[in-house]
């Protein structure tokens, strides 16, 4: 399971959300869904987003370890 870090990365990003949305060619709703992990960007969009956020693509998500009983 993956946990999105996009929302927290957007909060510290030097760019406004409007600029990122324009550069990616996506809607505000799409970016919001990526931010909370409802949907995932395509690989090409993930690389562009990572460049804009000045992180590696790996940094957009973190692996969430699920507990087993």
Describe it.
The protein has 69 residues and is mainly alpha-helical. It has one domain: 434 Repressor (Amino-terminal Domain), CATH 1.10.260.40. A two-stranded antiparallel sheet has the order 1-2. Helix 1 packs across helix 3. The radius of gyration is 12 Å and the shape is elongated. The model has no long low-confidence stretch (mean pLDDT 94).
Short note summarizing the structure:
The protein has 69 residues and is mainly alpha-helical. 51% of the residues lie in helices and 9% in strands.
Q: What is the name of the CATH topology?
A: 434 Repressor (Amino-terminal Domain)
What is the general shape?
A: elongated
Quickly count the domains: 1
**The biggest beta sheet, please?**
2 strands, antiparallel
CA radius of gyration: 12 Å
Keywords:
51% helix, 434 Repressor (Amino-terminal Domain), 4 helices, two-stranded antiparallel sheet, 69 residues, mainly alpha, 2 strands
Please outline the helices and strands.
Blueprint: E1 2-4, H1 6-12, H2 17-24, H3 28-36, H4 43-53, E2 61-63
Antiparallel strand pairs: 1-2
Helix pairs in contact: 1-3
């Amino acid at each position: 399971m993956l946990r999105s870090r996009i929302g927290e990365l957007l909060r510290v990003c030097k760019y406004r959300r409007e600029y990122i949305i324009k550069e990616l060619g996506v809607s505000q709703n799409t970016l919001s869904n990526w931010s909370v992990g409802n949907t995932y960007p395509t690989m090409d969009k993930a690389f562009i987003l990572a460049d804009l956020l000045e992180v590696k693509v790996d940094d957009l998500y973190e692996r969430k370890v699920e507990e087993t009983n």
